[in-house]
Amino acid sequence: MSVHNEPIVTHLYTADPSAHVFEGKLYIYPSHDVDHDGPTNDNGDQYAMEDYHVLSLDNPASPCVDHGVALHIRDVPWASKQMWAPDAAYRRGTYYLFFPARDKDGIFRIGVATAASPAGPFQAQESYIEGSYSIDPAVFVDEDERAYMYFGGLWGGQLEKWHTGSFQPDAAEKNPEEPAYGPRVAELSEDMLSFKSAPQEIAIVDEEGNPLLAGDEDRRYFEGPWMHKYMGKYYLSYSTGTTHKIVYAVSDNPSGPFVFQGTILNPVVGWTTHHSIVEFNDKWYLFYHDASLSGGVDHKRCVKFTELHYEEDGKIRTVSL
Ligand code: FUB
Questions:
Q1: pTM of the full predicted structure?
Q2: ipTM for the complex shown
Q3: DSSP characters for 168-204?
Q4: Which end of the chain, N or C, is less surrounded by CB atoms within 10 Å?
Q5: Over 60: is that where the pLDDT of 237 sits?
Q6: Ligand 1 centroid to 303 CA: how many Å?
Q7: Which of 14, 16, 155, 297, when mutated, tests ligand 1's pocket best, judged by the most ligand atoms within 8 Å of its CB?
Q8: Is residue 1 part of a domain?
Q9: Where is the site Important for catalytic activity, responsible for pKa modulation of the active site Glu and correct orientation of both the proton donor and substrate (predicted)?
């Protein structure tokens, strides 16, 4: 039986959980961390993942099922290494797995693979999504059926290297007083296999409408976007990276601008933090990871979940574990 705040599986190291309700169950699309003792660096080379397993829960109290390898890098023609945080979506009888990996030139791109079942196996497209870059895709299908991909991550995720619109291998970080880099959003085409138009940068602002600054590491975007809707508002949540928090901002529009609100999850064991938010049977859940299963090794993580609560004004109650 799955227990809240405990790893949902212990036979694999898992991270970056994207949770969805498909066919009446909770399906979780995590990264599958490789159990190695190699060196660690800010480029994220230690995150050397090669495949994805899909997990499912009939309900939050039931045992977690591992559906086995859903996609392996050897079956992705364009990818060379590092299958990082994925997400999944459903449209008209097909399930889509969106995933970042480095291409043959070492540049992170975002690919898509399809399956007839939410558990896979997934069949990758020949090439990555044209115009895609960086990491951490999160796909949100709105009530009007329009689908949006949010993505982007600093440092090893290479987002800074795209600030001119093309890949600049030596691009520097922003000065602390400059507006921070925002995540990107692109609407997906009807077949979910391409972008309708070029990705746009999302603005995240404070209550006065001023953009969050690069030096505002407690609030500015780092990686791991997630989009959900609550009471008609769009909630963009993400990791602050260097300050290890999951925070959120809200908007009336899926493309923003988003107004910063506060912290969803305080720092957990390990450097990275990455989450998703899902409604199941009228309750809301926060799926997240920490590194407790490995005794704190940053690249050997485990997926957990806990219930999430809203205040009457729509604010999310901060979770501290
Ligand atoms: O799992 C590899 C990377 O670590 C993810 O892409 C980031 O979000 C962070 O969790």
A1: 0.98
A2: 0.98
A3: -TTPPPPPTTSBPPPPEEEEBPTTSSSBSS--EEPPE
A4: N
A5: yes
A6: 13
A7: 16
A8: no
A9: 136
